[in-house]
Amino acid sequence: MDRLVAVDSGGTFTDCVTLDAAGRIGSAKAPSTPSDFSEGVVQSVARAAASEDLGLDDLLARTGLFCHGTTVATNALLTRSGSAVGLVTTRGHEDAIIVGRTIQKAAGVAESELSNLAHLEKAIPIVPRPLIKGVTERIDYRGSVVVPIDLDEAAGAVDELVTAGVEAIAVCFLWSFLNPEHERVVADLIRSDHPELFVTVSHEVAPVIKEYERCATTVLNGYLSRTTHTYISRLQQRLADGGLANDPVIMQSIGGLTRAEVGKGRAVTLLGSGPTGGVFGAASLGRLIGAENIVTTDVGGTSFDVGLVVDGEPLVVGTPVFDKYHTVLPVIDVVSIGAGEGSLAWIEPGTGLVKVGPQSAGAVPGPACYGAGGTRPTVTDANLVLGRLDPDYFLGGERRLHVEGASEAIETHVAAPTGLSVTEAAMAIVDILDARMADLVRMSTIGRGYDPREFALFAFGGAGPLHVGAYAADVGTRLTVVPTNSAVFSAFGIAASDPVSVIQASDPMVAPFDPERLSALYAALAERAVAELTANGVARENITTGREVEMRYRGQVHEVRVPVPEGPLGPESLAVVMEEFRRRYNRRYGSGAAADAAIEARTFVVRGVGRQAKPELHPEALGSEDPAGALVSERQVYFRPLEGFVPTPIYRRELLRPGNSVPGHAVIEAVDTTMVVHPGQRADVDAWGNILLDTTGGRR
Questions:
Q1: Which of 149, 144, 160, 147 is nearest to 87 (CA)?
Q2: How many Cβ atoms are within 10 Å of 446's Cβ, its own excluded?
Q3: Count of CB atoms within 10 A of residue 658's CB?
Q4: φ and ψ at residue 355, rounded to 5 degrees
Q5: Contact 349, 396 (CB under 8 A)
Q6: Rounded to whole angstroms, what are the CA distances from 659 to 285, 474, 537, 626, 680?
Q7: Span 217-260, pLDDT tens digits
Q8: How many other CB atoms are there within 10 angstroms of residue 174's CB atom?
Q9: Is it the case that residue 307 has pLDDT exceeding 70?
């Protein structure tokens, strides 16, 4: 078994990457199948197998490791199709998850949607108020039992929830992260009396301070885990029937892989796991080409995702927001907006302005040019009208695009209402999308205290290369990289990932910190991380651990995550941690904002990584700059600086060789993506097969 297979399920396409023992990379795409995402997974693997003249069963039989990133949990949350979940909590605190935070109405909302505050709403409750039951019990801030739990009352509450038809129960008591005994006895009671229910408890899912966020995280896990369990079980069976000997491993939103059986019960850790793969792939590729600071930009069919790699490591956020719910589960910091190739163009009532997204045509019916029933214009339709896409070579010719359908949709819904020509309307649609993407890159860098000019920008996803020449030039990053496998790069990142276990715990303290207390805490967390990884089949000698702490100035509400040096903790190493906290705080919030306040350490984190042997990639020698060997045709493409449609050379991506240099204006086509090189720009192929785009010479 010499193959590694990784599959990333997106909202529109499902991507597959294969690696053999020699480091050769294969790839394939298939339409996602929202009715049963496992079908799209199997189709993408079958196409990857066919590209190597293998059958599906042959490829799976040769596969030693099958990795998967899934959007099933995310889709279940966004469509509110999770389980009927009940909540058992401390009496008197039943309304905490309903009340939420003051900022919940605006949580995760794009700036363009914040203009009308009166129309902002809090999250739609995933647990209705009648399914929230309070139980008499109380543990205080030191972990001491103040009021013993009333087990008869707890049993009655559970019975009421069962009678109401819940499929899952979440249990979250005050201060349970310091003393979980009350949660344990209630969980045991439920599992004993109602083994058919899925039970999730906060001290197992999120044993950290912050009552509302911890409760929301626990309820989300209960709401989503039955859906995730069903999906992963179905996928396991389909892959086993196809010849896969080993269980698949699942990508987590914190990065890294975990066993399928673990993923089934920790659905909340899978939210947003797809975009995470791209960030890890960028960090891995960055190490090869010498890029430590990277902005990752993933343009898919429905969304535009931006992440950051700083000093070689992906940035992590400790309190992510999922559909307006604040949680306390560390995840790779990826910001998304509804802006992709399938985004719909529309006219805003009242203003008459052209808008693009966040609504999407999705995989079904898709853009108007698909000819599959879609009638509203998308960005894909606009790019087709502008000549950037070849109607006969979309997905390598597998799907023919209809220019007439695209033109008609743009004429009806954008051009006629605005008085623009179809070409002008198509260019406006693309301009708006490009501007929205550039704005998000600026917000994700400058908004966090980073200068984008000090970063390389990686563009991937099916539509990243199509748009990067515009938004990268707008932002002004120092280097633009289009990876060799850009259309399936998130799947590549999943393939490049290792098993990971992240264990966290809260034990609030104020500086000066006690080194012995901290050392004991980190030792306990590291022991748990190592135990989880060894249960995943990772040998102890292949496991490394790293330490972090979330700190804040006393009296403030925002924490800053800081690395903790390896080795014994003492006054000198803790002084280094304090100084790094001040440096990171000042970069994010400005110097002097709270310089005289005491510093608190709140939550402590250990990240365990199980290093796995993987096929190595090998560079090639650079050859001639002349790309003539990849030139296949010429067609009319619209460029504004050239004042209209002009004859444009078309190059095949797979025929370009290391050392080739393609001057703009040009179009570079692959089976699964298209890249536009604008006038004045230049695309160079490096030794690894990546395209390095010089955007300093100009844009459209």
A1: 160
A2: 12
A3: 18
A4: -125, 150
A5: no
A6: 18, 26, 42, 8, 19
A7: 999 999 999 999 999 999 999 999 999 999 999 999 998 999 99
A8: 22
A9: yes
Query: For residues 449 and 593, what is the distance between their CA atoms, to the nearest angstrom?
Result: 14
Closest CA to 395 of 31, 25, 638, 10: 31
Going along 70-126, which residue ranges are E strands?
Answer: 85-90
CB 179 within 8 A of CB 206: no
- Rounded to whole angstroms, the Cα distance separating 32 from 38 reads 9
Residues 6+ apart with CB under 8 A from 444: 295, 306, 307, 308, 335
Q: Classify residue 391 by burial, with Cβ atoms within 10 Å: 0-12, 13-18, 19+.
A: middle
DSSP 512-543: SP-HHHHHHHHHHHHHHHHHHHHHTT--GGGE
Give the position of tokens 């009648």: 130
Euclidean distance between CA atoms 242 and 236, whole angstroms: 10
The domains found in the chain, sorted by start residue, are 3-76+229-252 (3.30.420.40), 79-227 (3.40.50), 500-610 (no CATH), 628-682 (no CATH)
pTM, 2 dp: 0.88
Give the number of residues written for the chain. Answer: 700
CB atoms within 10 A of CB 423: 18
Q: Which of 70, 59, 71 is nearest to 3 (CA)?
A: 59
Report the b/e string of 316-341 with b at 16+ CB within 10 A.
bebbbbbebbbbbbbbbbbbbbbbbb
Q: Answer for the pair 475, 452: CB distance below 8 angstroms, yes or no.
A: yes
Query: 185: pLDDT confidence band, cut at 50, 70 and 90?
Result: very high
Q: Which amino acid is present at 315?
A: L
Q: Are strands 644-652 and 456-460 parallel, antiparallel or unpaired?
A: unpaired
> Would you call the peptide bond into 182 cis, given omega within 30 degrees of 0 as the criterion?
no
Residue holding tokens 């090189």?
A: 677
Token duo for residue 678: 């604008």
Whole-angstrom distance, CA of residue 572 vs CA of residue 63: 48
- The alpha carbon torsion through 271, 223, 606, 103 (nearest 10 deg) reads 70
DSSP for 196-250, written as a single string? TSEEEEHHHH--SS-HHHHHHHHHHHHHHHHHHHHHHHHHHHHHHHTT--S--EE
Residues 6+ apart with CB under 8 A from 439: none
Question: What are the Cα distances from residue 681, in Å, to 412, 662, 667?
Answer: 34, 9, 12
Pairing of strands 331-332, 316-317: antiparallel
DSSP E strands: which ranges in 409-487?
Answer: 456-460, 479-482
Whose CA is closest to 562, among 598, 525, 589, 602? 602
| DSSP 8-state symbol, 411 | I
pLDDT digits (tens, 9 = 90+) for 451-509: 999 999 999 998 999 999 999 999 988 899 999 989 899 999 999 899 999 999 999 99
* Omega before 358 within 30 of 0, i.e. cis: yes
For residue 580, the 8-state DSSP code is H
pLDDT, tens digit, 9 for 90 and up, residues 680-698? 999 999 999 999 999 986 4
State yes or no: cis peptide before 647, omega within 30 of 0: no
